[in-house]
């Protein structure tokens, strides 16, 4: 969308009243996303639920992102923070530090949400007094879209096993923070923050939030639209090996937390690395476990690394 049309849309949907006590604080880190951030922020100011504050953290952008963000300042619910480039963790932590709402939502600046997204989330978590509400994820790939997580009805999960099961996407991962609404009381009580300077920062945050939440409820008929792009942190090249190191660190922390608190993780999450032995055998290695699959499909061996070393 060009700047002229963007300004027109902002004028059409902007709110000129300031909510001194917003119900929901929405935290949006932004770094070099000039082609995406306008659509993202429009989807937020268009929300049918109006009692929100919008905390945009510019993480040292240098591509024109900041200029687009500034256009949204005329909406009185928007608060803009600027920091030198320190990464998404510290951007989100800065948002958490300044959030005034009773609930917290996260949106990535290259994604977007349905217009009734926060209205439905708020209604449902209030109805069940749940600590977390979770929604469907539509993944937008280059040539097609698909559900990565799809809820067709409301379901309340109270036990740890049910909470983990409810949060699993099609890859059996449970760590997305942006398709959820959190009670700020939960975040504050357990000091839930994101580890600074790290990729995979949502892993330690999410497992703790799931573990400590009194309950989690699924919210159908609304969607978080996730845009898969080659220049994102996860999909960009890893020449210095930082992404791999952070991945191993995050999953080691996950496995340790699970072991300490008696959490049974989905099978796939017990392994932090994998490699092929010739074309026949794929080996999955975790902190405490290892398994070997024939052709990468048929399990033929699984054992404890601890026992192996003893």
Describe the structure in your own words.
There is one protein chain. This protein has helices at 3-13, 37-45, 65-70, 88-98, 117-128, 160-167, 184-189, 202-212, 242-261, 305-309; strands at 24-30, 52-58, 78-82, 103-106, 112-113, 132-140, 145-149, 155-157, 180-183, 216-227, 273-277, 281-285, 289-294, 298-304. With 310 residues, it is α/β, with parallel strands linked by helices. It has two domains: 3-227, Spore Coat Polysaccharide Biosynthesis Protein SpsA, Chain A, CATH 3.90.550; 242-309, no CATH class. The strands form two sheets. Strands 1, 2, 3, 4, 5, 6, 7, 8, 9 and 10 form a ten-stranded mixed sheet that branches. Strands 11-12-13-14 form a four-stranded antiparallel sheet. Helix 8 (202-212) packs parallel to helix 9 (242-261). It is globular and about 65 Å long. The mean pLDDT is 93.
State the CATH topology of the largest domain: Spore Coat Polysaccharide Biosynthesis Protein SpsA, Chain A
Low-pLDDT segments: none
CATH architecture of the largest domain: Alpha-Beta Complex
User: What is the CA-CA span between the terminal residues?
Assistant: 62 Å
Strand content: 25-35%
Main beta sheet strand tally, sense and closure: 10 strands, mixed
Order of helices and strands: HEHEHEHEEHEEEHEHHEHEEEEH
Mean pLDDT: 93
Number of strands: 14
Mind telling me the C-alpha Rg?
20 Å
CATH uppermost class of the largest domain: Alpha Beta
- Which structural category fits the helices and strands? alpha/beta
